[in-house]
Description:
The chain has helices at residues 14-26, 37-41, 58-67, and strands at residues 44-47, 53-56. It is of the alpha+beta class. It has a two-stranded antiparallel ribbon with strand order 1-2. Among the domains are: 9-33, no CATH class; 42-72, no CATH class.
Amino acid sequence: MSMWMTLYFSVQNESDIDVVSGKLRKLKMELNVKDDVDGFLGVLIKKLDGDRIELTQTGLIKIILEAKGIKEANPKSTPAENEALPAYKT
C-alpha cells in the first residue's frame, strides 16, 4: 500500500528548504518540491471581472492521477452545477 502526505514549509532563506529536503531524502522519502502556493495547493486562482474569481484544480487532479497510476485513464464528463454559490451575507 502506498501512502502520501503533503507538507508545507515557508522559509525566508531558500537554502533552508534544501537542508530540510536533504534530510528527508536521507530518510528515503520521495519528495516533489513545488515553487509556489498554487503548485502546492493544486488550485489555480484566476481573477475575473468585478468581484468574481475562478478556481480550478487541474494541478491537484493531475497529482492524484499520477499517484494512483491512472494518468492515462479515459476521462468521463460529469455534469455539475455551473452557477456560482451565493455570496456570504453579514
